[in-house]
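User: If only I could read backbone structure tokens as easily as an amino acid sequence. Those tokens are not coordinates but codes from a learned vocabulary of shapes. Could you go through the record with me and say what the backbone is doing? Here is the record:
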Amino acid sequence: MATIEFKNAVGRVYFDNGLTDDGKLIRKSKTYRNVAKNADADDLYNALEELAQLSALPFIGADKVETSNVIN
């Protein structure tokens, strides 16, 4: 029986970097490593939002990206 084993997680913060000539949003991102496996969603969002305040660009959202191994 195969199982999924947590490998690592990162938090990715997205910023508004203006518009293209076509009017499409240009997004910039910054990635923060070593996010805990069991990080609470509210705590993680608040931490990433606070880190985003260090940027001159407007904050538009954040993701938690997890990597796992599927083992047999």
Summary: The longest helix spans residues 41-52.
